[in-house]
């Protein structure tokens, strides 16, 4: 009973916390103060809700506790500075009054997350901090997880994020959506953060068979973005890309929880409505005749999803699209996927040549590279080298199901006792 209650509490907090943080930050104009206040409210909820039950209006409960912390914080600042109420105090007073009104009625808290994304992309903030700031403040990733994604040490990333939050507060950056003319300049960082969040949620082995958590939140933010910019081709492409991936989510594991690679997935478990929606968004993007990274990635996923209707995969077309993608966005992921597509469209030797052309310093810690390398080396009958590549891929894999899958493939190599 307690465990079930704890799961309900965690779900409510997960679903509410990011919207409440955006709500508080937009009104106090102090991201760090809002984070601290909401963290205190969350801790108190974790201590009391499992025993007493989740309140009828959990968001109002959390907001009430958080605003008390913010009010106390402002009072302490006034006493310390012996000054007139500062901007933070005035903003907290206004937020408090608004929160009380909402808490006592049936109003729904406004979703300020999209606004906060564009604030985090303000040109006054260091370019290298914008996407990490969005990932932490709006999407809830911790500094250590963000640091790993950006190949930085956690303390250095923590300092970068703290400086960015101080910049928002001290520079008086406005907490309103930018003017329409300013949106395009900030859009790229916003799209990158949303996609990075989706990728992090997608890779989470705990939620592998569910469309919940961070991946679902990223899709939700993508849809909000399309309400703001309905004809933005890269926004349309990003949401289509996420939906194509989400459509296959249930097929990533079999009934026993084992990892199933894309080429072996049961297409009857794919969501045809999500695929249809994604294809519609992709067609809308293509009509703008402004091709970009996310549209190309979505087009590639559309071809993969077409197997649900045709029974086959057009690898030549996929390889051609990857050629275009690496021309405009030569990320390590695109380069490795291009090599895998070339192996399917031509042969393993062509794929291996493309894989070998990727600079070694980019691939040493990139798990998908070693998984693809192990597969291609197996096809080329280079058993000893394939075994070493499998070992490296297994060592770098975070998902236990994927590690088991790779270990089974490695065990089936010629020369292993289990393969005889």
Please describe the structure with a list of short key phrases separated by commas or semicolons.
Arc Repressor Mutant, subunit A, globular
Account of the protein in words:
The chain has 420 residues and is mainly alpha-helical. Among the domains are: 1-110; 111-173, Orthogonal Bundle (Arc Repressor Mutant, subunit A); 346-420. It is built from 21 helices and no strands. The protein has helices at residues 2-28, 31-52, 58-81, 87-104, 113-120, 127-137, 143-149, 154-170, 183-202, 213-228, 233-247, 272-286, 293-305, 307-310, 315-328, 332-345, 348-356, 360-363, 367-379, 383-396, 400-411. Helix 1 crosses helix 3 (58-81), helix 6 (127-137) crosses helix 8 (154-170) and helix 15 runs antiparallel to helix 16 (332-345).
Summarize it.
With 420 residues, this protein is an all-alpha fold.
Beta-strand portion reads under 5%
Radius of gyration (CA) equals 24 Å
Query: Runs with pLDDT <50, length 5+?
Result: 102-109, 206-211
Share of helix among residues? over 70%
The residue-averaged pLDDT reads 84
The separation of the N and C termini measures 49 Å
Main sheet overview: none
- What is the count of β-strands? 0
